[in-house]
Amino acid sequence: MKILTSNKVKIEEIKRIVGDKIEFGEGKDLPEVDGNIDQVILYKSLEAGKDIVVEDTILALIDEDGNIIKEIVDIKWKINELKEGQRVKWITSLGYNDGKNIKVYRGFINGVITKEHGDEGFAFDPYFIPSILLKSNNVKTLYELNEEGKKDDFSARKNALINLMNKEEIYSTKISEIPKWNGRYQNEEVEKNYIIL
What we know:
By secondary structure, the chain is an alpha+beta fold.
């Protein structure tokens, strides 16, 4: 099994979590469809091909009970739109293409957005405080937790990888039943120039 990603930070995190249980294939980012969370991981997995695992991370705005209000599938281009105090869910999806089916594995962590702790770090790490820490005297962002070597204890990516290693998929879709994508792509003016390796 090989996971395909161009993101060096994600590679470091995955290696910390699963060691040498997964091989890595590096290349440029795969194009991501401008759809919902399921469409993004299915089409990304189709693009990657057989025997490849792909990863996709989103944030979702949630209500007080943890129910999703809105998915932000293109979070890497919308980080600056996050607002102080917003309740969010970090969702990491892993898609595995076995040639006949795409199996999807997920991990979830609830949190809240802060802008008070600086803006250093990877992606939304400087702005995301895991909800479980809000009731403690140790309120820290993912960036601060990572600096202490503790981010993996609060990681949706880790949860998704554990589910992958345990073969506990959230669902499976037959490749033959996935229609050709005719819609837009995220950040289309950039994506249309990507070369897939």
